[in-house]
Amino acid sequence: MFENLVPHLPILIIAIPLFGAFASYLFSKVSDKARDVFAFIVLGVTEFLVLVLGKDIYTNGLRVYTLGATSAELTAPTGYIMPVRIILEVDALSIFMGIITVTVAFIVFIFSLKPMKEYSGTDKYYTLMFLLLVGMLGIEFTGDLFNLFVFLEIASIAGAALVAFFTHRDESAEAAFKYVVICSLGALLVLFAVALFYGQYDALNIAYLANVMKYSLLDKIAFCVLLCAFAMKAGSAPMHMWKPDAYGEAPGPVAAILVTASLVSMYALLRVCFTLYGRGLNTEVIGWIITVLGLLSIFIGVTMALIQNNFGRLIGYTAVAEVGFILLAAGVGFAGFSSTGFGFTALQAGLFHILNDALDLGLLFLVSGAVLHATGKRNLNELSGLARNMKYTCIFFIVGLCAVAGLPPMNGFASKLMIYESVYQFNPVFSIIAILASIFMLAVFVKVFYSVFLGPELKEFSSVKEVPASMLLAMGALAVLIIVIGLCPDIFVNNVINPAARALIDYGIYRGVV
Amino acid sequence: MFGILETGYGFWSPIIWIITIIVIGIILYIIWHLGEPAYKKGTEQTKPFLAGMPEPSKEAVTVRADNVYWGFKEALKHYYGPMIKTHSGIINDYISWFVVVLAIVFVIIGGLL
Amino acid sequence: MTLESSAIFNLPFITVVLLIIIGMYALMFKRNLIKIVIGLTLIESGVNLFLIALGYRKGCYAPIYTNAPTTAMVFPTPQALTLTSIVIGLAVTALMLSFAVLIYKKYGTINAEKTRRLKG
Fold first, then answer.
1. Rounded CA gap, A327 and A67, in Å?
2. Cα within 13 Å of Cα(A6), Cβ side
């Protein structure tokens, strides 16, 4: 039924949310209900299409879409020796990230149906959400470096506007200013690296650039700039300080989707390291740099999270630590760079942790949004005894807590165990630090659990009610995903993560399309 | 459906873990059941003993989030003091950190490779 | 001495480096939020100038098809990139300035040292 549609899916998956972004604003002029239904349909269709494309890619391999060409696979126009058109390249890793992004966006949308009704500007909220989704999907699917810059900027503009959503709070503007300065600096440096490539090779296509790369000094400069820019956008220490600011001040659902946005930067980092440069530079040294950045993030993230008293800000610091785990695994994977042995296990673990991170931290941010919706408070010092009135939220928080701290049998345990064991073969000390940090993480969330849900019931919270069903549904969906992945991790790793990791290691397939 | 996940050195199987936990739980329940049934709910037995003083209300003595890890923070105050100072909240510092990392990475990659 | 190796040929690239360094200086050491925005705009101008300077090819014509000569024309990609980047830069600058206005309304100052309630 979809044979004719499948070749066009890469662009449709980007175009449909882009259409939804502006059309939902028009629908909100009719009524709020119409807009909600429309946004639900758009996101549902996008989710469906991304799953169809995912099934196609996991069975048939990478898919290419050339914009403006007579056929989708025509990468180089007749008479040209190199690709001049914008090419979308979707391989197993891209679609893996795409499925995570759309799923989290869908769940966040369902969550924000009710709580966002209380604020003005809900119509713009949905437009910005869709634009953020478009930016993330564009970064994942594009095979063109300049296009990557454009989508990076779309995502950061939409993200910054969403961080400032609570304009009645003073700190929101401050957080949004920091976020947009950091993001646009990162994006400008990416553009600088793009210009360095264009000056040398007259091309912008990632696959073509990788084929003709001469690894000159300018390419090394470009690599440093890209590495640092994407590491900053992913939130690696010591360039992480914008992250707790932005996540702490953004509304809960926005923070949940911004976690995925920073993981998309992580994807761009992996794409640059593995596909664009591959084995050309010294993978051992670069792997060490990424690993050290990861360890710093883990350590600073958990220790600083322990002393936070703002719910969102605390989870923001743990998000820094979680990105550190991914960087650690990715660095070891890059240093190993083979399709066997501990390097490959580490890479698989890193990708698996991307999936788990998006779900776990997403769930925790949604819980923080639910607590804010029910009590109007974010300061942990003022909260107490909410488990009495918010039983389901409390259960979902426990699920998220166990998952993010890496307790069995949740998904976080499976990926962290893979990280510990593969990193141990690279360097035992790193593995020990990671395990200790994971214990710290548990301590951090036990503090949150104790101060928010346990303790005596305060009289100002005696009339607090459980959050509406749509919010519970969204949190429940994430919790179910966490438990399902936790109970059968081997199915996910063998069928979903393994092809994605192979797509990074066998970079010849990605490079071979032009 | 519950297979075994290879994790580098060893393996991980949630189903084996759950079975183990259930077995341990049953054993613990049996041991607990053999104990002395002296505990009576709602009597003096369950009240905390505070040197004969009346018990203050739960709301008054609850430990708030800031004080939960007080001892830990106090012991590590030489670490936390500089760290809090480093997280200054000034946007210029954030960018300076980025430039510092960029410089270090460039020296390593440009110099060593 | 050919044109390619002369200093005048490299002048645009020297300007690019200068613009980016001045912009970075402003971002790192200027506490005024408006000046931070100006610093970012300077970096953006530097990168745009870099792209435009890369698009120059000696002895080629600009790709304008009205009264087009029969000789070789340059490939217009850098110009297209710069145009896109300028538009994006405008949007980002507008957004940043509106946040600066919002910060001034809420805090009464645009000094980065005084607008830092989010710290620690």
1. 33
2. 15
The domain tally of chain C equals 1
C-alpha neighbours within 13 Å on the C-beta side of residue A359: 31
Determine the distance in angstroms separating the CA of B73 from the nearest CA of chain C, rounded to an integer.
Answer: 14
Q: Do C99 and A180 touch (CB under 8 A)?
A: yes
Q: Which residue in the set C27, C117, C119 is minimally distant from B92, CB to CB?
A: C27
Q: Does some domain include residue C21?
A: yes
Query: Which structural domain range is residue C44 located in?
Result: 7-58+73-107
- Is there a contact between C92 and A194 if contact means CB atoms under 8 Å apart? no
**Touching check for A202 and chain C: CB below 8 Å?**
yes
- ipTM of this model? 0.93
pLDDT in single tens digits along all 514 residues of chain A: 677 888 899 999 999 999 999 999 999 899 989 999 999 999 999 999 999 999 999 999 889 998 888 887 777 776 677 788 889 999 999 999 999 999 999 999 999 998 888 888 888 899 999 999 999 999 999 999 999 999 999 999 999 999 999 888 888 999 999 999 999 999 999 999 999 999 998 889 999 999 999 999 999 999 999 999 999 999 998 899 999 999 999 999 999 999 999 999 999 999 999 999 988 888 899 999 999 999 999 999 999 999 999 999 999 999 999 999 999 999 999 998 888 888 899 999 999 999 999 999 999 999 999 999 999 888 998 888 888 889 999 999 999 999 999 888 889 999 999 999 999 999 999 999 999 999 999 999 999 999 999 888 888 888 888 889 999 999 999 999 999 999 988 899 999 999 999 999 999 899 988 7
- Residue A112's region, left for phi above 0, alpha for psi from -120 to 50, else beta, is alpha
CA distance A90 to chain B (A): 27
Query: Chain A residue with minimal CA distance to B19?
Result: A409
Question: How many domains does one find in chain A?
Answer: 1
- Cβ distance B89 to C27 less than 8 Å, yes or no, reads no
**Cα of C64 vs its chain's centroid, Å:** 25
Say if C4 is an interface residue toward chain B (CB within 8 Å).
no
For chain B, give every domain's residue range: 1-50
CA distance A32 to A23: 13
The boundaries of the domain holding residue A269 are 6-511
Give the Cβ contact number of residue B76 at 10 Å.
Answer: 15
Domain of C11, CATH number, reads: 1.10.287.3510
